[in-house]
Design a protein that fits this description.
Blueprint (H helix, E strand, L loop, with lengths): L1 H34 L5 H5 L5 H11 L5 H13 L13 H36 L4 H15 L2 H15 L24 H8 L2 H22 L1 H15 L2 H8 L4 H30 L2 H6 L5 H10 L3 H29 L7
Helix pairs in contact: 1-15, 5-6, 5-9, 5-10, 5-12, 5-15, 6-10, 7-9, 8-9, 10-12, 12-15, 14-15
Amino acid sequence: MNEVWKEWVIFIGRRLLQTLIVLLGLTAVTFSITQFLGNPVYLLVGVQANKETIRVMTERLGLDRPLWEQYLTYVWNLAQGDLGTSFFTKNTVVFDIQHRLPATFELSTFALIIGLIWTIPLGLLSARYKDSWVDRFAKGLVEAGVAIPSFWLGLLLVYLLFFQLEWFPAPLGRLGATVQAPPDVTGLLTIDSLLAGNWEAFRSALMHLILPAVTLAFTSCPPILQITRNAMIEILRSDYIRAAKTYGIADSKVYYRYALKNALLPVTTMTAMTYGFLLGGTVLVEVVFSWPGLGLYAVDAMNNSDFQPIVGVVLLSALVYVTVYLITDILHHIIDPRVRTQ
């Protein structure tokens, strides 16, 4: 037992150190980029301000200090959760992100669930019946999902299902204008509506959520299908699967117990990558559906030359990525103990 705990401590410690190095590297990149965006003082005081006003504001922001000192201050502020203040909203970036993150999290999670429902089963069927019509259909969906831009698909769905057929509400946020919002508990409107027993709000939140989630699921999740198919085909050709079949083990047991278990590693890795992308890459879909999440927040910040929120969203997206990868590594550690020695 002590050896097992020692392996876990070494494994998680090494992954945490790698995560810290990645985050420090990202802070260096974001800090360097902000140095080339121009002087933020002019965003605060305007280009017509006199030299004395500019000098005072520069000293107040600490921009007159050496770069290395500015960077250390920047990292120290980040470590304390200080992402700066938005010049446009006048709120701290942390405050804005706290109010916008639940919308992006709900949309991304729902999109991933929809994606997993159709990609993994279809990938398994495609591998089992290789070169059949199912396989060709699956490959066609992958090619279409990769080729179609998410914003175009979103606009198409809005035109057909809202404007023409009126099956779904207008793409104007997370809830109908006449529907009373449930008490804010988790920030996720579908969950909060269920907790409050507000079925009208739940139905409205769900109907507003479906179209953007389907758009993201169709355009972002096809790689999961492709990885599932390729991994299963490769494993089904392996020697130990052939040996299991020669021993008379039932095909269904070989397929789902032995082959599927060994295909979980690449599938979970691609799922983690997709989820990280969804949490940090819903910008265009949020704009199309006026979804009040981080993507729309970043676009509004860019339109107003407000770089602090942009940097905050970038850092948060990177933190989400490395956290998802860390959790995936731990799952791999549980699924296949062989990775502990890597």
